[in-house]
Amino acid sequence: MTNTPGDPRHLETLDRDLARYSNLELASAYVARPLVGPGIALVFVVLAGLGAALFFGQTNNSMIVIVAACFGAYMALNIGANDVANNMGPAVGANALTMGGAIAIAIVFESAGALIAGGDVVSTIAKGIIAPESMGTADTFIWAMLAALLSAALWVNLATWVGAPVSTTHSVVGGVMGAGIAAAGFAAVSWPTMSKIAASWVISPVLGGAVAAFFLFVIKSRIIYQDDKIAAARKWVPVLVGIMAGAFASYLALKGLKKIIKIDLQMSLMIGAAIGVLIWMVMIPVIRKQSEGLENRNKSLKVLFGIPLVVSAALLSFAHGANDVANAVGPLAAIVQASQSGDFTHAVSIPFWVMVIGAFGISFGLFLFGPKLIRMIGGQITKLNPMRAYCVALSAAITVIVASWLGLPVSSTHIAVGGVFGVGFYREWDAERRIRKARMAIPDRANFGPEERRRRKLVRRSHFMTILAAWVITVPAAALLSAVIFFALNSTLG
């Protein structure tokens, strides 16, 4: 017996078929969603290669430049996915910025930093890690730079996938070192430079953590633990915002504006001191007005740190774009120069079109893949509020200035993540101290057993160990991968 069009059973069959199609569409959308990001990224990489083809389509070694442009675009995407999260994570974790707002600010300021203040003259092979003369020929040098670029990008991609914030600078350093050793042996490496970089693995996070913990101690002792929190905030928040403004002014003058004007450390500190005092004076009436009517509780204090935190995230992004874009495009610029002129022993000037690839790649990488690490740094290591996130942001600026004064190479990634850990471990220590104090006053109070004490840890140890392991193996892993890629390229194309 067949169903007629008006038969209710026909309608039931139709509903079942429509439901199947609807479920199929939902399943297709669910499966396709993870492929959208990689698909857009692939289109960007292809466009970078096509752009290089337009510039160098009629020249010698044009295919090499096209391949290098694709590798540089891929590296820039990975820097955006991994490195930029360090600047935005604390502000998002503290709810001072939404994820969308953080990404928008980062894209604007990262691109501005890269295009306005980036593109400074870089040394031929990643800041003197290996001797250029040891490369022998331009072709060997080009294969080495291609291997370094691809290995660094692959390593950062893997680290982002497992949720570990790693230093893209150290990834490039490892890639250059591995390719240099494969091409010219261990004698080609500047081991004093490498020893300084290895020392920075320890110095960067420890210094960043110590500075962040110190400022959290100041905020807790001078504001949070005071009887009249609002009165204390009116006195100390302008001072803290002035310190932040001065630190960032020095940081940007020292690190972010090298292309526009050359400023030494002493001059940058003087600029920072002047701007810090000016902002402190401006913020006194602003904070007084902002604090009117606020209740005398910790939650009220968060309002006063919101705007400084957003500004600090923007300034960190500008400085990061100005400095770290060279990680993506420095080797690419060196390949372009070596391909055009055969010169690979002198300083390399980065062309504007190469800077555009770096700037847009970082922005696309952040937009497509950045939220995962932003969430991890902002909320999964330790719980952040605006005061704690402020301490992390301030420690990033101050630590870079101190490291420059001491002449130490440091990683912005290690400093920022070290600051998050410093804040978390200080909170653990402070909570333990207050428990001991309460137990001394009332012996039966706050008497937690070992299991409860472990549960009350404020820093997730699994993230701590994962990140630490990723930091330690970044340079050797990128070096080994680079050496393998170099041998493959050299044997296939050399």
Q: What class would the helix/strand composition place it in?
A: mainly alpha
Treating each run of at least 4 consecutive H or I residues as one helix, how many helices?
16
Helix content: over 70%
Percent of sequence in beta strands = under 5%
Radius of gyration: 26 Å
In total, how many beta strands? Answer: 0
What is the CA-CA span between the terminal residues?
75 Å
Spell the H/E element sequence: HHHHHHHHHHHHHHHH
Uncertain regions spanning at least 5 consecutive residues:
27-32
| Shape, principal axes of CA atoms | elongated
- Whole-number tally of structural domains: 1
Question: How confident is the prediction overall: mean pLDDT?
Answer: 81
Largest sheet: none
Tell me about this structure.
With 494 residues, the protein is mainly alpha-helical. It has one domain. 79% of the residues lie in helices and 0% in strands. The protein is built from 16 helices and no strands. α3 packs antiparallel against α4 (99-117) and α8 packs parallel to α13 (386-406). The N and C termini lie far apart (75 Å). Residues 27-32 have low confidence and may be disordered.
